[in-house]
Amino acid sequence: MRSQSVRVLGIDPGLTRCGVGVVDGCVGGPLTLVDVGVVRTPADLDIARRLHLLERGIEEAIVRHRPQVVAVERVFSQLNVRTVMGTAQASGVAMLVAARHDIEVRLHTPSEVKAAITGSGRADKAQVAHMVARLLRLEQAPRPADAADALALAICQVWRGGAAVRLDAAVAKAAGR
């Protein structure tokens, strides 16, 4: 029995370019591209104004597409602390906007997304983009890479999300909640 279709908004957080991609699909069924793009902010604006622009762009995507789940890349430690801070702040904005709309948020690590999309957690950006294009039956990969990464997050959630929800429910049941 095939699972029910879900609409997922994938967000690849970043201060300068925040990828936003919407996919419809279910485990075992075809995936459908709904929308993809990038919310951009000028590097010369102060951080508060940049975060506000991101909030408006993500809000617009949520209102327009009404996703059931928002999948956000889990921020991981990099050598460049400044980059991590901006990514973490953008990620927080995405989660806040989803919560404001009472939409479930799921976090996925980059290696988890790569493994889901390509079969290897060590795939490079070109491999991920190529597979996103194949899975969504596109002639070419979405650009820039942030857009393709957002779609990869959404696809990962479509495929793995149902299992995560069932696992959470089983753990809660076992704990007597």
Description:
This protein is α/β, with parallel strands linked by helices. It has a single domain, classed as Nucleotidyltransferase, domain 5 (2-Layer Sandwich). The chain has helices at residues 47-65, 81-100, 110-118, 125-135, 145-174; strands at residues 6-12, 17-25, 32-40, 69-73, 104-108. Helix 1 (47-65) crosses helix 2 (81-100) and helix 4 crosses helix 5 (145-174). The longest helix has 30 residues, at 145-174. It is globular. The model has no long low-confidence stretch (mean pLDDT 92).
Brief summary:
By secondary structure, the protein is an alpha/beta fold. It is built from 5 helices and 5 strands. The chain has a 5-stranded mixed sheet, sandwiched between helices.
